[in-house]
Amino acid sequence: MNSLRFFIGSLLSLLLSGCFIANDIATAIVNDLGPVSFNTVCIISNCTNSNADVVSDIRTSYVVTQKNGKVTITASIGQTANLLTAVAITGGDSLTATVDGQAATFQSTPDTGTPYTAIVPDASLQPVVVVNFQRGASVYPSTVTLPPSFVMLSPMGTVNLGKSAGKLQVQLSLSPMAKIGAVVNMKCNRADSTSFSAQDAVPVSYVANTNNSFAIYTSDLEVVLNGASQTPNNQGVSNISPVTTCGLTIDWQTKVYGTVSSGLYRSSYIVGIQSVQNQVNYDSRL
Description:
The chain is an alpha+beta fold. It has 4 helices and 20 strands. Helix 1 packs across helix 2 (24-33).
């Protein structure tokens, strides 16, 4: 079981290490499976060095987050549209960044699925982040201004939610026009007494005629939870027994995509994300 889990984690981490797919579901799966090594990724994939590629074939994927007064930049490097190629920065190539003009130093983290991370103290309202891929004297910048940070006004504390409640409603310090998404981290039990853990994106709706309230409807949540349950698990089999109870951590997110140098591969991107979390005890029987 553990070896298969590790293999799946490695393969999915490769997909993100190669291109860091701008997809909450893919990101969530890898986070749930936990860290895998870059060297392990290379066992089942094609790994290459950045200086072996022309710059126009380099696919850069940068994810920028801000939490607790710190900005974190996660950088993944890939090769064209090839999801099965992970790229290490080598030779005369380099990766640098600034946060509101403050230099950020990337550290290679070979024991995770995302190879390069930089963390900079910055509590400004909307940090401006520039990440540079550099080859010789040529610099290929990507820039994003993070969306405004926000807080959860209600509910406070852990929520007990039954299916019959119809929705989980929260009030956020965001305008009704804000584009808000959510990722749910689930630890669930099934009717057959088995259990599973997973992460997935879940639809969010604005609640009309309210003061900045947003909702996840339990009908949508049921689809997500049971869909995750029925996805082939660690044993490589699908379980159709319905979900009964879950402990949920819901990550409410806003995101903004920035600009990327035209000299890099066309699907390169940089995204800035702000988020808040709340805890939910869910019971589909109630």
